[in-house]
Amino acid sequence: MPRPQKEERLHFRVTAHQKKIIARAAELKGVTMTEFILAATYQMATEMILDQTKHRLTADKWAAIEAALDAPAQEISALRDMANKYGHLITSSPQPVPSSVPVAGPAENDLVATLNSLLHAGASS
Fold first, then answer.
1. Which of 2, 38, 44, 121 has the fewest CB neighbours in a 10 Å radius?
2. Nearest to 102 by CA among 90, 91, 92, 112
3. How crowded is the C-beta side of 32, counted as CA atoms within 13 Å?
């Protein structure tokens, strides 16, 4: 598989001490300083994005969510009141979820596709 073309550049300044530490770590890893900095920075960035967008639940919390979803629907008077007040603003035909919705992976893409298919199935029935 061919490597993607690297077209972007990053420039930054470091102290002599920071450079020495990074150079030593890169040497220990057996890579160039650029490879070391890119790998470490990329890993930290992806972990931070996942941490901010993915949430893990304990088995107990997941069971509570499933139980709430499986429970009979309850009327919420505030929602009914809001629907009566603002219902005219809702379009009568469901709109697809835009493909530009940021997602983290294949599972989320499947969810968006499923939601779109449900919306379209509901519109045709």
1. 2
2. 112
3. 3
